[in-house]
Backbone:
């Protein structure tokens, strides 16, 4: 099987850029609204892809860029090692269709490039988090207010019937972590912890 793996960090991202890829795939797996810091094996699509790889059904995995696999160097390298152990060729389209296997043999520069690039993606993620936090601090310093509007009230029954609340409860029932749910649905971890109670 030739599988395309796509991921977006937030639910608001529809992955429109992935539509530019018109190659034929046996299966496309899309983890929508999943942070790159979530380990690959803990994502719904990532777990499904690893199961297919371990069953020996996958010959090739295609990603737009390594950051789609994750933004944690160790996790990305562990995932790539898993693919390698099952002789799965990995193609990174955004790097000139860089492949892990060339002419039936491991690409000699694959480990170097993937190590460096995954480290850069992790650094980029940390930088984004830092800039976001600085932006929030500046907003508050300039008189802005974070959080729910003062005086907002909502009864428990209405709260529990909200679509978002139902989705959070469903994901909690499936054993998903608070951070994973927060990332998938674009809500704070405090919201996730509060939802079912």
Residues:
């Amino acid at each position: 099987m030739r599988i395309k793996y796509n991921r977006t960090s937030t639910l608001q991202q529809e992955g429109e850029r992935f539509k530019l890829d018109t190659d034929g795939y046996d299966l496309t797996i899309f983890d929508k609204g999943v942070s790159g810091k979530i380990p690959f094996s803990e994502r719904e699509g990532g777990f499904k892809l690893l199961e297919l790889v371990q069953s020996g059904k996958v010959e090739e995995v295609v990603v737009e860029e390594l950051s789609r696999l994750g933004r944690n160097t160790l996790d990305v390298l562990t995932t790539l090692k898993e693919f390698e152990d099952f002789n799965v060729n990995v193609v990174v389209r955004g790097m000139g269709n860089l492949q892990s296997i060339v002419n039936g043999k491991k690409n000699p520069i694959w480990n170097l490039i993937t190590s460096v690039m995954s480290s850069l993606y992790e650094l980029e993620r940390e930088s984004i988090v830092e800039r976001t936090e600085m932006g929030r601090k500046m907003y508050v310093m300039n008189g802005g207010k974070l959080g729910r509007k003062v005086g907002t009230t909502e009864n428990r029954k209405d709260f529990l019937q909200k679509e978002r609340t139902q989705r959070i409860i469903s994901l909690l029932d499936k054993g998903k972590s608070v951070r994973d749910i927060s990332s998938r649905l674009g809500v704070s971890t405090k919201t996730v912890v509060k939802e079912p109670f």
